[in-house]
């Protein structure tokens, strides 16, 4: 599925996100900038911080465990339900609506914010009821697993995958960046990320974060 080239000939960029994560949100806004300056098309997929961490809850701080238990399942369940019932094309716009309310507007992942985001993009607000249902958890887990299989368990969200020179996908976690670069800066980060990610055996560049997400 993910390796298929779009009909418009643009390079497909598969992006796995959990709408709860502010850092994935920053990266996703950068990817929208990359679409403007490079011949790429982003295809959005859900992954789940709750699924990612369900086997290591004992290792996590209590506050993070509470967040996973009380907030993490609802938004991704709503997105996967929207995708299953209304098609792949709604995923990106719904993510934008959710993220804008959760992060930029400071509303957080409340039921009210989820319902409002659905309304923002013209989707039925009763999709919000899927937040408390496991109806599409099989599809949610499959989407999550597709992304995580490309990079391994020791990462988070987002995961990005692009076709390599040999046709095989190159996948990586991140980049983690704030604020989201725009214009030529977005293009430079994209080109550099692809350059290092395409090197066989390359795994990591990292430095301590000294700034939180800047939503602009």
UniProtKB/TrEMBL annotation:
InterPro entries: Rv2466c-like, Thioredoxin-like_sf. Pfam families: Rv2466c-like (PF22234). Gene3D superfamilies: Glutaredoxin (3.40.30.10). This is DsbA family protein. It comes from Streptomyces sindenensis. The lineage of its organism: Bacteria, Bacillati, Actinomycetota, Actinomycetes, Kitasatosporales.
């Amino acid at each position: 599925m993910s390796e298929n080239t779009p009909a418009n000939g643009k390079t497909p960029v598969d992006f796995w996100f959990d709408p709860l994560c502010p850092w994935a949100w920053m990266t996703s806004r950068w990817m929208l900038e990359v679409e403007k300056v490079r011949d790429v098309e982003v295809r959005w997929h859900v992954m789940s911080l709750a699924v990612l961490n369900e086997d290591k809850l004992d290792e996590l701080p209590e506050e993070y465990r509470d967040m996973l238990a009380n907030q993490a399942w609802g938004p991704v369940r709503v997105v996967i339900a929207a995708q299953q019932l209304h098609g792949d094309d709604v995923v990106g716009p719904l993510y934008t609506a959710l993220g804008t309310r959760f992060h930029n507007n400071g509303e957080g992942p409340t039921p009210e914010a989820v319902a409002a985001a659905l309304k923002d993009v013209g989707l039925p607000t009763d999709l919000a009821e899927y937040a408390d249902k496991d109806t599409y958890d099989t599809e949610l887990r499959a989407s999550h697993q597709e992304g995580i299989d490309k990079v391994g368990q020791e990462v988070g969200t987002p995961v990005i995958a692009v076709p390599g020179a040999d046709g095989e996908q190159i996948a990586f976690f991140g980049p983690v960046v704030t604020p989201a670069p725009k214009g030529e800066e977005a293009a430079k980060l994209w080109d550099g990320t692809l350059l290092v990610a395409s090197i066989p055996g390359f795994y990591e560049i990292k430095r301590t974060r000294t700034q939180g997400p800047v939503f602009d």
